[in-house]
Recover the amino acids of this structure.
């Protein structure tokens, strides 16, 4: 009888303890957050997160270009556009100055930050404003089959070799315009010029924000001149003056109309390898960025998750950011075309052979620098706008490279003083 | 006795007058409240804010007076956008008016199935600007675009012509899309006025031996002047508010950038909100002033005294 009593007490205690243990495992269960990210995202993200944490997620997706106006209008009005939002590297200077986002250095463990090398791009004045989740840096994408068809078996490592290869592909009649290069007044034109400036061996500004691209012997000047020369040589489609980088990716490179994407996005490799989305599946590879010297360089344009200070659900939002940037999730999310930001996840995928062009990506990721060593400035949008407006005007033959460089420098100076 | 009767009559009129005035106030109160909340208060608030530095990247909102307004004068991008906008307004209003009157006159001649013709004509206006612009973007495509295809079919050298690489053709391409969307509305407004002209006037003119041209000039045009003025006002405001088509077709290109895109870039790209507000107010004032010319003309043409 006594045994039965003790057994009953033990089971009763266990029955009471199990829900309590469950609550400990999911301390925020029952909470609900909103998340705003660029489309597309994995279809099961919200359900998987809720299963793991008990937190309900209302995942909203918008096209990348539409997110920023939504964020800015809501944040200026003092409301949270969502509890967790997209946070692009180019917004860092402005959003830090505005004080809109929660510093995360004290809530994200140091090992995570150390594993995500590009996190430093989101760090301003010691404040980590976003945790990078997609590892966008620049490589060069090539159509190896078209190279081979033109009799080229060794991939270029210098800019001279790159131009020579492009000319050979054109001369052999493989494609009419071998090089994909956006020349429209859009961000893609700016980022391509930044990459070519790095490839020419220079940087955009010195430590005092003095422009380094105004003289003919500067890397930025040479990069712009190179873009114009490629256009004049018929290596770049004249219609590129009206095309964004995404359009050149989708309508030209993915259809085999160009052989080289100058400013290639590693995350696109999965799309190009998919026969449903690309007619060049099995032909595309990433190569490290050819440079004037032959020593590759690149820079990072990662996207992060940030939490607005006015979010009413910061605990649950932090839990989402942590979950979304775990190594396990990042490795799984690669299937959705999102390249991991964790070095360890990249290495795992490369070792498993699932990372397309893994050797090139891992080699390039080790050379990734921030575009601005001092951090992204508050006037970056004006600078970028001046850059792509100037590139567009040069490509249309409206101004010379010399005038373009002067225009960019003047616009930058004006933006700095505002 | 006469005096007493007159006083009573005056009192009755006064009571009736007060009652009418009260009813009038009661009837207009809702719209006054709505306008005050949604138009006048935001307008005054925007005016006040434009005199302050509203920039989320800088602390405080100090009073800066007319600094943002004077900045506009030396801002090259703003000036270029204004020039583009004025070109759009002049071309769009002129073409929409002339083609709108001609189109309405043509449709007015259709006796059978006019409603179907009208339904087809109105379609571009019924479609969102972005949809229209996207369709035209395909038409203007350098490689497989319809326009280059047609011109090439006629043996002209337009196989890979890029319409947006030249400012003149870019402006023409963009404004064509805007006119394509707004022209149907002008046709509908003018057509409605044409259909209200009594047929007897034309019959009398015919008896007097008037030609079709003189009837159009002496009867139709004078009687549709008010409708033309309304259509021109609408066209002017729409051209000043031009954004969608220019954005979809040429993005922020300075060659085609209208002032509204410049405002968008200042406010939402550069986060210079008070500058954006100042620019918005100037656009509103200029647009209203130009429209006022037409409105005054309508008033003069339509008043009964």
């Amino acid at each position: 009888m006594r045994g039965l009593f003790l057994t009953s007490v033990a089971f009763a205690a266990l029955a009471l303890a199990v829900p309590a243990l469950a609550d400990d495992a999911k301390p925020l269960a029952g909470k609900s957050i909103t998340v705003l990210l660029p489309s597309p995202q994995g279809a099961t993200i919200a359900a998987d997160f809720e299963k793991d944490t008990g937190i309900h997620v209302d995942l909203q997706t918008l096209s990348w270009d539409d997110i920023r106006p939504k964020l800015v209008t809501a944040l200026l009005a003092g409301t949270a556009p969502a509890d967790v939002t997209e946070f692009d590297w180019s917004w860092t200077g402005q959003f830090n100055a505005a004080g809109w986002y929660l510093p995360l250095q004290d809530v994200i463990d140091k090992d995570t930050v150390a594993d995500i090398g590009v996190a430093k791009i989101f760090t301003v004045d010691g404040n980590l404003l976003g945790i990078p989740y997609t590892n966008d840096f620049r490589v060069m994408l090539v159509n190896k089959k078209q190279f081979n068809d033109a009799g080229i078996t060794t991939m270029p490592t210098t800019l001279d070799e790159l131009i020579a290869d492009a000319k050979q592909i054109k001369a052999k009649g493989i494609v009419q315009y071998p090089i994909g290069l956006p020349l429209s007044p859009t961000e893609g034109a700016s980022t391509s010029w930044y990459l070519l400036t790095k490839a020419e061996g220079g940087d955009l500004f010195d430590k005092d924000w003095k422009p380094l691209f105004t003289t003919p012997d500067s890397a930025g000047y040479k990069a712009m001149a190179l873009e114009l020369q490629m256009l004049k040589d018929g290596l770049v489609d004249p219609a590129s003056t009206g095309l964004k980088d995404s359009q050149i990716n989708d309508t030209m490179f993915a259809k085999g109309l160009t052989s080289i994407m100058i400013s290639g996005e590693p995350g696109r490799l999965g799309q190009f390898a998919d026969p449903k989305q690309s007619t060049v599946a099995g032909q595309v590879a990433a190569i490290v960025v050819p440079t004037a010297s032959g020593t590759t360089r690149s820079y990072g344009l990662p996207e992060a998750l940030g939490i607005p200070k006015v979010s009413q659900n910061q605990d649950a939002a932090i839990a989402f950011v942590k979950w979304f940037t775990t190594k396990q999730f990042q490795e799984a999310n690669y299937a959705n075309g999102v390249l991991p930001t964790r070095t360890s996840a990249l290495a795992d995928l490369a070792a498993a052979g699932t990372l397309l062009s893994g050797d090139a990506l891992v080699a390039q990721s080790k050379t990734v620098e921030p575009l601005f060593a001092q951090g992204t400035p508050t006037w970056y949008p004006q600078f970028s706008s001046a850059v792509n407006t100037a590139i567009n005007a040069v490509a249309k033959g409206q101004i010379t490279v010399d005038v373009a460089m002067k225009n960019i420098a003047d616009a930058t100076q004006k933006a700095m003083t505002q | 006795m006469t005096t007493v009767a007159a006083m009573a009559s005056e009192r009755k009129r006064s009571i009736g007058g007060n009652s009418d005035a009260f009813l009038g106030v009661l009837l207009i109160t809702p719209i006054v409240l709505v306008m005050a909340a949604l138009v006048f208060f935001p307008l005054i608030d925007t005016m006040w804010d434009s005199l302050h530095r509203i920039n989320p990247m800088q602390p405080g909102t100090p009073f800066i007076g007319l600094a943002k307004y004077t900045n506009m004068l030396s801002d090259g991008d703003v000036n270029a956008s204004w020039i583009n906008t004025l070109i759009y307004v002049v071309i769009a209003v002129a073409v929409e008016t002339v083609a709108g009157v001609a189109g309405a006159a043509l449709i007015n001649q259709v006796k059978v199935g006019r409603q179907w013709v009208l339904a087809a004509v109105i379609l571009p206006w019924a479609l969102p600007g972005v949809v229209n612009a996207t369709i035209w973007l395909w038409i203007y495509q350098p490689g497989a675009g319809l326009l280059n295809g047609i011109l090439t079919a006629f043996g002209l050298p337009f196989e890979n012509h890029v319409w947006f690489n030249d400012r003149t053709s870019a402006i023409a391409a963009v404004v064509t899309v805007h006119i394509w969307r707004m022209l149907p509305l002008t046709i509908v407004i003018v057509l409605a006025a044409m259909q209200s002209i009594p047929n007897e006037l034309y019959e009398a003119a015919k008896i007097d031996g008037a030609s079709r041209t003189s009837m159009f000039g002496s009867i139709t045009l004078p009687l549709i002047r008010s409708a033309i003025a309304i259509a021109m006002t609408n066209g002017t405001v729409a051209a000043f508010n031009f954004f969608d088509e220019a954005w979809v077709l040429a993005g922020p290109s300075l060659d085609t950038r209208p002032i509204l895109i410049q405002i968008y870039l200042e406010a939402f790209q550069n986060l210079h909100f008070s500058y954006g507000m100042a620019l918005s107010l100037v656009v509103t004032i200029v647009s209203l002033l130009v429209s006022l010319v037409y409105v005054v003309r309508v008033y003069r043409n339509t008043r009964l005294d």
Observations:
- Residues 14-22 of chain A have pLDDT under 50 and may be disordered.
- The interface with chain B takes residues 68-69, 72-73, 75-76, 94, 97-98, 100, 184-186, 237-239, 241-242, 244, 378-379, 381-382, 385, 389, 392-393, 395-398, 415, 418 of chain A (CB under 8 Å).
- Chain A is about 45% helix and 10% strand.
